[in-house]
């Protein structure tokens, strides 16, 4: 079984891999395919973290509420950047600068999460509890949106409800997007 920290780190490596392919590719079609994959990975990961990881951290950490408020602000900023990036044409001159700026903030967030939050969380959990959180994270990612949305509802709980209502539409639209080919790498097909 996979522990929660391993599941989160695996998601982070997938995002880094997509990013590296995007910024190193000269092919617009390949960039578009990995733009869709990056968007799919980050949108699902962010919402699933908010629904599964954040509540667990809040219960187990003495500074849980304050820390999570910071994390939610970071997630909100990343979602706003993703909202802009996900619909940019790969030939747009803003394409690479937008994902590069987004990845800089995301890399800091991932580093902090991996070296601080997940270490503290794992120290507080049994192996069984950690594995159950990882399983819940994976299951949750199947039901959340695969795109970023701009709700501006002012309350994370309302946004969660809006996310869950929006997810089926995202999944339907995903059927008509371009995706990386299986042999291109790292990816779990969004078409499962």
TrEMBL record:
Residues 4-115 form the Hemerythrin-like domain. It comes from the Eukaryota. Pfam families: Hemerythrin. InterPro entries: Hemerythrin-like (IPR012312). Signal peptide: none annotated. PANTHER family: HHE DOMAIN PROTEIN (AFU_ORTHOLOGUE AFUA_4G00730). This is Hemerythrin-like domain-containing protein. The lineage of its organism: Eukaryota, Fungi, Dikarya, Ascomycota, Pezizomycotina.
């Amino acid at each position: 079984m996979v522990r929660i920290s391993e599941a989160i780190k695996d998601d982070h490596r997938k995002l880094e891999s997509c990013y590296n392919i995007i910024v190193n590719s000269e092919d617009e079609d390949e960039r578009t395919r990995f733009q869709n994959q990056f968007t799919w990975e980050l949108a699902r990961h962010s919402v699933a973290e908010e629904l599964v990881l954040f509540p667990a951290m809040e219960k187990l950490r003495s500074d849980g509420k304050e820390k999570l408020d910071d994390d939610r602000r970071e997630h909100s900023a990343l979602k706003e950047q993703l909202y802009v990036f996900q619909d940019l044409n790969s030939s747009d001159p803003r394409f690479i600068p937008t994902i590069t700026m987004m990845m800089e903030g995301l890399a800091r967030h991932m580093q902090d999460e991996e070296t601080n939050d997940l270490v503290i969380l794992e120290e507080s959990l049994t192996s069984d509890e950690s594995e159950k959180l990882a399983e819940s994270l994976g299951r949750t990612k199947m039901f959340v949106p695969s795109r970023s949305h701009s709700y501006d509802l002012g309350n994370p709980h309302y946004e969660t409800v809006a996310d869950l209502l929006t997810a089926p539409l995202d999944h339907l639209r995903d059927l008509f997007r371009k995706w990386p080919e299986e042999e291109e790498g790292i990816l779990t097909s969004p078409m499962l």
